[in-house]
Every structure is written in structure tokens, then in C-alpha cells.
Amino acid sequence: MIEVKNLTKQYGTFTAIDHISFEAKPGEILGILGPNGAGKTTTMRILTGYMPPTSGQATIAGYDVVQDSFKARQHVGYMPERVPLYPDMTVQEYVAFWARLRGVSNVKKQVDAALERVQLKERRHSLVRNLSKGLKQRLGLAQALVHNPPVIILDEPTIGIDPKQVIEVRQSVRDLAHDHTVLFSTHILSEAEQVCDRVLIINQGRIVAQGKPEELRQQLHPMDDIYIHVSGAGKEKTERILKSIIGVDHIEARGAGYILYAKPGVDLRPHTLKTITQEGLNLLEMRPVAVTLEDIFLQIVEKEGEK
Fold first, then answer.
1. Does residue 77 share a domain with residue 60?
2. Are 83 and 139 in contact (CB under 8 A)?
3. CATH number of the domain within which 246 lies
4. Backbone angles phi, psi at 250, to 5 degrees
5. Which of 266, 285, 267, 289 has the alpha carbon at shortest distance from 276?
6. Burial 50-71 (b: 16+ CB within 10 A, else e)
7. pTM recorded for the entire structure
């Protein structure tokens, strides 16, 4: 549904995105993850026809975003980071305005359907100026949906709204996957993990990793670290014993126990059980410490910074 090949954008001598390639399949929520300035918004602006690439190719539903720009844009709904709103319109008037701009044939039906999908139908006669930030974000989503495009592109849709509204917007995004391909930009790592089927990690204009969050965990850290809580010895002796376990790189105190960080490719569990038993300690708790998307992101960005 979205296909990008060697896409590059330069501003003078500055390269905003550098030969990036990826695909998004029908019904998939694909997250673009990266720090501010990584190239996420530039990528989305090219895909939505707001600016041309310097080189490379991108297609939406089979239409080239440069050669068939009008056709490609007909198949995209775009919600930018800062949604352009007209405060003196009502909610219904605003979405209807966008529907007419996009050549929607049955305006009232499509407007009602879009407002229903983002839970704004009861506020359809409210002035846009009177909406909260969270409701304005939903309104921005409604204008992106009103022509029922197969592809929805969302740039930081939860930025600046309160936690309750964040949950509501995330649920709306998840619901979109039933009928649309969604490209979802965020710098909030936990958000990408909760919402997206697959993620691209972009840093300094280049894709540095991509895949499902669980696949990235397996690739970058195939054996989870271990949290362990023991008794039967003082702090100094306990730490000395834990550091002596085969395969332990280092340890870190955490709550009542310790995290044992494994060396690459080592399963700490059998070595830990053997050592604890031999040293006469009491094992109160042992569990894996899951690697989060945030851990993965920090590992990748640090490695890229060392190059």
C-alpha cells in the first residue's frame, strides 16, 4: 500500500533523509520512531505530496507521489503535527469543508461517518474554538478520514494532550487498521509499542532498524536479563556471589533484589540456580527482565553515535 525506495531529501548541504526504503502493507499500523529532527516529518510530507524528494521513489496505492501526485493524494488522509483548524466553524462545517475540497460525493453521509468514528458526533454543532486540545486532535483525525482513503498518515497525533485523551486517540488509531493502512510517527517509545504492528527506527535521516518490537528484542538481546531476590547473606557477600555467576556481565541493585545483566548469547538461569544452591542462599524470586522498545532504541542510537 505504501512503498518507498531509496528516498532522499536534501536542503542545500544538509541531508534530512538519506536513501530510506520501506513498505507498509494493507491493514498494517507502521510506526516511524526517532528523536526530533530524525527525518520523520520530512518523510511524511513527501508521502503526502507537500514536497518533492531530491531522489528516490515513493508510491501510495500504486501511484507515484511525484509522477501521479493528484491520484496519490486522493488515496491519503493526512493529519499533520499541528492540525490547521478554523475556530469560527462548527465541527460539522469544518469536516464538511474538507470533504468538499476532496471531492466527496455524499458529503453529509461521509461527514457523519467520520465524526462517528472519532466519537465527535455529539459535538458536531460545537464551535471548533470551544474544543479541548484532545477533541481538536480527534477533529484533525476526522478530516483525514472523511474521504475514506486506504492510507492514513499521522504525524505525532498525541503530542500535547492529557493522558486520558492520549488513550482515546491511541484507541482510535488502533481501530483504523480494520480498514486502512496507517503510518504513525512518534518519538514516544511506549506509544509505538502499544499501537504499532511494526516499527522503523530512524536516526539522522537513515533507517537503522525495522521490524516488530518483539523481533527487534530478539535480534538485539536474545537472552533477557534476570531480576533476582535472595536471602541468607549480607549485601557485600550477596553481590560478590552474584558477580561470580558464569555469564554475568554486571549487576545492578533494584528494589529488594538485583538485575543480573547477561553477556551476549548467555542464558543465565541454569548458572544462577547452580551458584545460588552451592552458596547456600535462599532464592525468593527470579524472573526475566523484558527488554523494552526504549532499551532497543537507546542501544541503536548509541551505536550509531559511535560510528
1. yes
2. yes
3. 3.30.70.100
4. -160, 170
5. 285
6. eeebeebebbbbebebeebeee
7. 0.75
Half-sphere exposure of 281 toward its Cβ, with a 13 Å CA cutoff?
A: 23
In 3-state terms, what secondary structure has residue 256? Answer: coil
Based on DSSP, count helices (H) and strands (E) in the chain, helices before strands: 11, 14
Confidence check: pLDDT of 306 > 60: no
Same domain, 244 and 199: no
**Residues whose CB falls within 8 Å of the CB of residue 253, separated by 6 or more in sequence, listed in order:** none
The arithmetic mean of pLDDT across residues 115-136, rounded, is: 92
Question: In this predicted structure, what is the pLDDT of residue 166?
Answer: 82
Q: Look up residue 256 and give its amino acid.
A: A
Residue 80: which of 98, 64, 66 has the closest Cα? 98
Q: Say yes or no: 237 and 213 in one domain.
A: no
* Letter string b/e over residues 6-26, b meaning 16 or more CB atoms within 10 A of that residue's CB: ebbbeeeeebbbbebebebee
More confidently predicted of 157 and 56: 56
Range of the domain at 242: 222-290
60 lies in some domain: yes
Same domain, 214 and 96: yes
Domains identified in the chain, total number: 2
Distance CA 86, CA 251 (A): 56
* Residues 184, 191: Cα–Cα separation, whole Å: 10
Supply the pLDDT for residue 220. Answer: 59
Mean pLDDT: which of 137-141, 168-172, 288-292, 299-303 is highest? 137-141
Does any domain span residue 307? no
Cβ 45 vs Cβ 120: under 8 Å: no
